[in-house]
Each structure stands twice: as C-alpha cells, then as structure tokens.
Amino acid sequence: MRANNNITFLFYFLLVLPLALADLTVGFYRSTCPQAESIVQAAVQEAYNRDRSIPAALLRLHFHDCLVRGCDASILIDSTSEKRSEKDAKPNLSVRGFELIDAAKETLEEVCPSEVSCADIIALATRDGVSLAGGPYYAVLTGRRDGLVSNLDEVDLPGPTVSVSEAFQDYFRAKNMTMDDMVTLLGAHTVGVAHCGLFKDRITDFQKTGRPDPSMDPPLVATLRSICGVVSGSINPNSTAFLDQGTPFTVDNQFFKQIMLGRGVMKIDQELANDGLSKGFVSGFASNSALFRTRFAQAMVKMGRIQVLVGEDGEIRQKCRVFNPY
To answer: For 21, 32, 100, 280, which has the most beta carbons within 10 A of its beta carbon?
Structure first.
C-alpha cells in the first residue's frame, strides 16, 4: 500500500502540481480568466457528443502545430490571396478540429477578451479530448503566445513510410524529444485513422512484388483490401481505416498490442514493433497499460513545450484564423 501511495504521489507531483517552464505554468489564467479551462472543456464536450473521433482530430492538430515552428497555433491561420499558410500544406489538408477551436475562442473573447491564446486552447482542448476518450487527464502548462508567421513552405512532417531512425533523427530528436517520447506520442494512433492512399502498397504491391506486405497479419490485409476497394477492383484512396483495429475510439495501449501482432496499418506503425530502436518501448507499453498512460501524459506535456512563445513574444489573437489587425 505504501509503495502504491508513493507512486500516486510521484505521478501527482510530476503532472498535477503547478509546473513552470519560462513563463509557462499550470493555472496561468487563474486570475485573468478563471473560467478559461472550463470554457474549453465545454466546447470539447459538445463536439465529442456529436463526434467521437474529435479526440483523434485534436491530437493530430496539436502534433502538426507543435512540430512546425513550435506550439504557436500557426496551423490555424487561413491562407490569403497573397500568402498560403500551413493549413494548405498537403499533410494538413485532412487536419480537423478548427471549428471547435473557433467556438472556444469566441466564448473566451466574450468572457475575457484578448487574454487566452489560441495555442493554449489547442493544448487544453487536446488534453480534454484525450480524457474523454478514456486516456489520462493531465495538467497542462499554459501561458503560450500565438505566432506571427504561418508559411506553407515550412511544413515538414514525418510521412507514413519514413523509417523509425529517420523519424527520430529528422523530426523528434530535432525537437529535443527522445525515442521513448516518439514511440509514446505515436501511440496516439490508438484513436487515429489513415486514408487508404497512405498504405495501399502494403495491401496490394509491397515493394513492387505484386503481393501484400508479408509482415502484415493476413486477416488484417483482407479487411483493409475490402475497406479500400481492392476486392471490388476500384481502389478508393480516400477511404479510411482505423489504425487501432481493437479499440479505435479509446486512448489505451491496444495500438501497441496490435502492432506486436503484425496488425500495424501504416509502415511506420509496424516498424515501431520491429525496429531494435523502438521495439522495447512498444513491448513495455503493450504489457503495461498504466505505464503507457503515465508516459503519454508526460510526453504530451513535453511536446506542448516545443519552441513556445512567451512573455512579450507573439500575440494573443482575437480570432484564431487570422493575425491581429495591427
């Protein structure tokens, strides 16, 4: 019992007590906008009641924002006739959740105008989505400022066919994330989907062999071929399949159990279980649900710190889709 109490205290200390990094802190809006977190939570709850896939959308939105210029809400900016923004980059064309962020921001501007950043709304909304999907509820550091730049040409995100070492060296290590962090964050695929165009080679013509990827579980191959239209002879690259075929709407460790059985849908997912750099973390998460929940919360907090703007840097946007008019 004493050991369990110590573990509980450590988890609380790491994730719930007020933490600070530069000007980021838990409860940043406690005095300036005390309703901030509850307003965001209500917006997420309303969206979740309509669409159980919104946690996956928010996780992807947060990830795609933080890996380009840091967690500064630059992904929310709309393109103009003069300049195309991150939102129009190919990897972001299927990103969702913008309307939810807009709804939360609109209410926040009514209650406490020009106080809560769009970057913080993304981080808070993602936490709330994870919790609604059965994942951990963790304390979010707030105090981010919104970026002043959003360029389509700066978007460079890991694709579905990248190797484990390439993903780590080129994207995660460059952001001061560890291999453990990377595997943990890719565990967000437990609630994700992928378009057939991203993995059709694995179920039809793997490496130009004319056959499916031999490392993929044959029943999964059959399921995916049916979903994507291979069986009927009319492949639809826009059809989608769950990345976790077990519990696709729950943030849990089932994704790791699935890929250990050869049931990874995308190449990078399956390689996590096969590559010597990452498979130890995969097996650890697959066998220990509590470990994954703890590490997922920690990795999300860490990702949310990437290249943040604080203090007088950036701005607090009045509307998340456009820079302030000055």
So the answer is: 100
